[in-house]
């Protein structure tokens, strides 16, 4: 049978071996070669065809039967798929010089020796070492070297607890930020991570995005992120999915992350067959069309090649990529574990497994790349260990007044009530809102939305970048904010008036997030870490949405300074209030934040600040104070819902005048305050319930008999003492709208008793204990409200219970 090729190029002489094949492949297009191979696989009946068949089998074995496997055919981009084929399927492409092999061996020696050092020094301690995947260290260094050569000069990393990475990458004296010399100086930042695996993923992405933003790195050409994962956690933790889904959103993308999965083929003690439903632990990455490179971790050269390709992919396409290091864990879940209990056959094989350093050193010695003497000298070098140092305290602890000039207030108010672009048609409903704002400004007043505008706008004037993120934040969950205006006749035409306030102002970023709390809050936390001179806010759609971000709150925000000596100024806006709308979305769970609150007299010493503002002016003040303080603390704000449009929840421009500041406590201003000796009862409260109490007091004409004092910052012992003494003969009451086992009761009880030194009773008024945050029945809600209002204002026979 005679063979004649009639395709786009003539048939070359058949090769006798795989080594000859690239000679003609290099002259033809890659796509032609693949078709050429397919044709000759089917035409191997002749002698020439049989020779081609042997060559093709060798090609297939080289490309598809080695230590690298790639998943990429699901990617719906022909150019990207073709790029991967060129890098992986082209025969003979994986080549290393002797110098590169020697560098790889040196890095592998360093990785192995540090693990040996830890095993000897702390033989009876858990250390979650790299034994079985020592190649991780050379792999990471290869990624960084390749990325650095492409222009990257800053890398932010996140990882599970792997001490080997800490030492081999970052000297312990500067574990969070150092310069490492490659071809040029490159900054490495390793984010602190709790034992909650994968929780650090969005935090790393947020910090990376912030550094890109502040450096003007719009394409991620200077700053990038690397995330390390465990196989079981990568498959099992939902925050991995949430983080991937942020990867290509305009306000959250970091233009490609390199994910390295340390796949030791067991998660804790669970076999993969009962730990996940997918074939591979990396399948979650397919949702964003990220290529997945599976590579045998016992083949260091294959690992290094895959790392080079992954770094080049990220540089070329600015998209995520996953490296699956298929390895093992020599000592089970940790060094104190007995893996034979649960994986006996696997660990019989592991105990017979030759160490990767031995394999690779023998290979290079056999090739003549290194001598036995050189290798023996290199494994006998000594190690040094440095120690962590702490940050110092700020020079000042006081905050300057947070008031504003009248001119500034009017200018911001006018911008907030207008459209800065010509020929821009807005919705009639938005027009009514803007006209209402203009009327408020004319009368020197502000509602909640306008008070927020004053806070953000004034900080922008002072050069402070403001970023507000969360679900529906552009419009506002309750349609009160409207920081982004949309043209009703031109698609994708929108306007952000806040960015048109001043010449040379700082930028304002307001961005609706994906329907994620865990991932997005972690992202914003990371963003806030990048710059102390920026106001970063995350708003929950409803206050109780922070439930699904509790890991970030518990592991990063609350204990961040205590665990890692790292201050952070993130602001959480949590809509809260019992409005009769049912158990969902009523309570932001203030009891949780107060329970975790480490409170002392000085703000600097607490772990976070908890406030429940009842006026727009006080909200504006506390937001401005967050930046003007000489140190950074997380700020938890229970924001209102019904008060957004409440006619009494207004502030005058006088409340924001020059020299004014945040009021931690708002005293009573009714006739009762003019004659304190005649006051029969003082009601302390916080938040929205004040307006219901004030309304009921007025209805019962008790404004001379009952004083109502609002705690805006919870808790403030000193001001409370002052007012307990002022109303020395009055009964003291704590009133809350939340159920007794929720809200503020358990927190304020011992503090009130301390204030009054147990000399006077302090009575509780509020809802009875319950399992749910609120009733689902509107009439029951109203009956509960009436009952505790009657109790609060019944002066003849008190029906409450003592604190």
Write the layout of secondary structure elements.
Layout: H1 21-25, H2 30-42, H3 47-64, E1 68-71, H4 78-89, H5 98-121, H6 136-149, E2 154-158, H7 163-169, E3 178-181, E4 185-190, H8 200-215, E5 223-230, H9 231-236, H10 238-246, E6 257-263, E7 292-296, H11 300-317, E8 321-326, H12 344-352, H13 356-367, H14 372-378, H15 406-416, H16 428-442, E9 445-446, H17 448-461, E10 465-470, E11 485-486, E12 494-495, E13 508-512, H18 518-530, E14 534-539, H19 550-557, H20 560-564, E15 571-575, H21 590-595, E16 609-611, H22 616-628, E17 635-639, E18 651-652, E19 665-666, E20 681-685, H23 689-699, E21 706-711, H24 717-726, E22 731-739, H25 745-755, E23 762-767, H26 778-792, E24 801-802
Parallel strand pairs: 2-4, 2-5, 5-6, 6-8, 7-8, 10-13, 10-14, 14-15, 15-17, 16-17, 20-21, 20-22, 22-23
Antiparallel strand pairs: 1-7, 3-4, 9-18, 11-12, 19-21, 23-24
Structural commentary:
The protein is of the alpha/beta class and 803 residues long. The chain folds into four domains: 1-65, no CATH class; 98-354, 3-Layer(aba) Sandwich (Rossmann fold), CATH 3.40.50; 406-576 and 612-656, Rossmann fold (3-Layer(aba) Sandwich); 666-802, Multifunctional 2-oxoglutarate metabolism enzyme, C-terminal domain (Rossmann fold), CATH 3.40.50.11610. The strands form five sheets. Strands 1-7-8-6-5-2-4-3 form an eight-stranded mixed β-sheet, sandwiched between helices. Strands 13-10-14-15-17-16 form a six-stranded parallel β-sheet, with helices on both faces. α11 links the parallel β7 and β8 (321-326). α5 packs across α6 (136-149), α10 packs across α18 and α18 (518-530) runs parallel beside α19. The longest helix is centred in the first third of the chain and has 24 residues, at 98-121. The radius of gyration is 32 Å and the shape is elongated.
């Amino acid at each position: 049978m005679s063979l004649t090729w009639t395709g786009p190029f003539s048939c070359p002489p058949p090769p006798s071996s795989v080594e000859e094949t690239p000679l003609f492949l290099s002259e033809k297009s890659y796509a032609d070669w693949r078709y050429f191979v397919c044709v000759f696989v089917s035409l191997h009946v002749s002698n020439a065809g049989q020779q081609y068949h042997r060559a093709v089998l060798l090609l297939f074995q080289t490309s598809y039967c080695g230590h690298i496997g790639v998943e990429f055919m699901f990617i719906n981009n022909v150019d990207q798929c073709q790029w991967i084929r060129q890098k992986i399927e082209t025969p003979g492409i994986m080549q290393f010089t002797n110098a590169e092999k020697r560098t790889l061996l040196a890095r592998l020696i360093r990785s192995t020796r540090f693990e040996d050092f830890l095993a000897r020094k702390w033989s009876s301690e858990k250390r979650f070492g790299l034994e079985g995947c020592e190649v991780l260290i050379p792999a990471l260094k290869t990624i960084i070297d390749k990325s650095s050569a492409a222009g990257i000069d800053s890398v932010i990393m996140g990882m599970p607890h792997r001490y080997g990475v800490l030492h081999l990458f970052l000297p312990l004296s500067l574990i969070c930020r150092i310069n490492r010399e490659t071809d040029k100086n490159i900054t490495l930042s390793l984010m602190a991570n709790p034992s909650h695996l994968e929780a650090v993923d969005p935090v790393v992405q947020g910090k990376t995005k912030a550094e890109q933003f502040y450096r003007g790195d719009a394409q991620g050409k200077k700053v990038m992120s690397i995330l390390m994962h465990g196989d079981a956690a990568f498959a099992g933790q939902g925050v991995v999915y949430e983080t991937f889904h942020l990867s290509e959103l305009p306000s959250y993308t970091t233009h490609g992350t390199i994910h390295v999965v340390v796949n030791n083929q067991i998660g804790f003690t669970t076999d993969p067959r009962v730990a996940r439903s997918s074939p591979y632990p990396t399948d979650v990455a397919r949702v964003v069309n990220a290529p997945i490179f599976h590579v045998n971790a016992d083949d260091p050269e294959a690992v290094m090649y895959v790392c080079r390709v992954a770094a080049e992919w990220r540089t070329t396409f600015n998209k995520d990529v996953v490296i699956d290091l298929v390895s093992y864990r020599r000592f089970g879940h940790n060094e104190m574990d007995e893996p034979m209990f649960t994986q006996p056959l696997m660990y019989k094989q592991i105990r017979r497994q030759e160490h990767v350093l031995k394999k690779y050193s023998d290979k290079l010695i056999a090739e003549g790349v290194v001598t036995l003497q050189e290798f023996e000298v290199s494994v006998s070098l000594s190690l040094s260990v440095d120690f962590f140092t702490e940050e110092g305290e700020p020079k000042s602890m006081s905050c300057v007044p947070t008031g504003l000039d009248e001119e500034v207030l009017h200018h911001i108010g006018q911008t907030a009530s207008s459209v800065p672009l010509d020929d821009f048609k807005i919705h009639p409903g938005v027009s009514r809102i803007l006209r209402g704002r203009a009327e408020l400004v004319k009368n020197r007043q502000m509602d909640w939305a306008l008070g927020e505008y004053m806070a953000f706008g004034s900080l922008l004037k002072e050069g402070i970048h403001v970023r507000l993120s969360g679900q529906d934040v552009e419009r506002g969950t309750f349609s009160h904010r409207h920081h982004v205006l949309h043209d009703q006749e031109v698609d994708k035409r929108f306007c952000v008036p806040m960015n048109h306030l001043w010449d040379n102002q700082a930028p304002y970023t307001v961005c609706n997030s994906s329907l994620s709390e865990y991932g997005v809050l972690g992202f914003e936390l990371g963003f806030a870490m990048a710059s102390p001179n920026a106001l970063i806010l995350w708003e929950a759609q409803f206050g109780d949405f922070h439930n699904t971000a509790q890991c970030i709150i518990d592991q990063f925000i609350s204990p961040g300074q205590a665990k890692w000596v790292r201050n952070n100024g993130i602001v959480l806006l949590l809509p809260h209030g019992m409005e009769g709308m049912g158990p969902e979305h009523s309570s932001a769970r203030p009891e949780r934040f107060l329970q975790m609150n480490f409170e002392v007299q000085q703000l600097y010493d607490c772990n976070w600040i908890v406030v429940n503002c009842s006026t727009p002016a006080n909200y504006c003040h506390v937001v401005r104070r967050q930046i003007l303080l000489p140190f950074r603390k997380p700020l938890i704000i229970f924001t209102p819902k019904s008060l957004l449009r409440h006619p009494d929840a207004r502030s005058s421009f006088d409340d924001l005048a020059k020299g004014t500041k945040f009021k931690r406590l708002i005293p009573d201003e009714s006739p009762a305050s003019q004659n304190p000796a005649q006051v029969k009862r003082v009601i302390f409260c916080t938040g929205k319930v004040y307006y219901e109490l004030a309304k009921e007091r007025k209805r019962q004409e008790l404004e001379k008999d009952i004083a109502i004092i609002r705690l805006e910052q919870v808790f403030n012992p000193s001001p409370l003492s002052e007012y307990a003494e002022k109303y020395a003969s009055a009964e003291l009451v704590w009133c809350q709208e939340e159920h007794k086992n929720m809200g503020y009761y358990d927190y304020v009880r011992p503090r009130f008793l301390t204030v009054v030194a147990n000399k006077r009773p302090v009575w509780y008024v509020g809802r009875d204990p319950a399992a749910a945050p609120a009733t689902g029945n509107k009439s029951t809600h109203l009956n509960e409200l009436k009952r505790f209002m009657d109790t609060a204002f019944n002066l003849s026979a008190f029906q409450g219970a003592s604190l």
